[in-house]
Fold this protein.
Amino acid sequence: MVSKYDTCTKNKVKVSYSLYTMLFELGLSPSNKGTIYLKELIEYVILNNLYDYSYKEILELFITENHYELNNIKNNIKNSLYRINYTKAKKNFEKHLSLEFDPYYLSPSKFINIVALKYNG
């Protein structure tokens, strides 16, 4: 299977693996398609240095490059975040993101920004 991202360097592999693990520990379902899109989108922001772009702009670039459908991506990501396991999120949010858990952070744009900025530093 060919990966969409070049994972030849140790840093990119580390980001990909640790990101996936962190999303599961934050209460996102590993079997939810939205979680997979969320991971890909966060990696896309990190690898392309899109920290100053709006969520809408990032989505447009992402779907154009990957030939996805906008409504599917948006709906799947929203559903993934709305179905988060609150118990796991409350327990692990501060551990992974250095923030006290607040449902306010579960909007797609805020969540993606918070996680992507964690890997920026």
Observations:
- Residues 10-25 form the longest helix (16 residues).
- The chain has one domain: 34-120.
- Residues 34-120 form one domain.
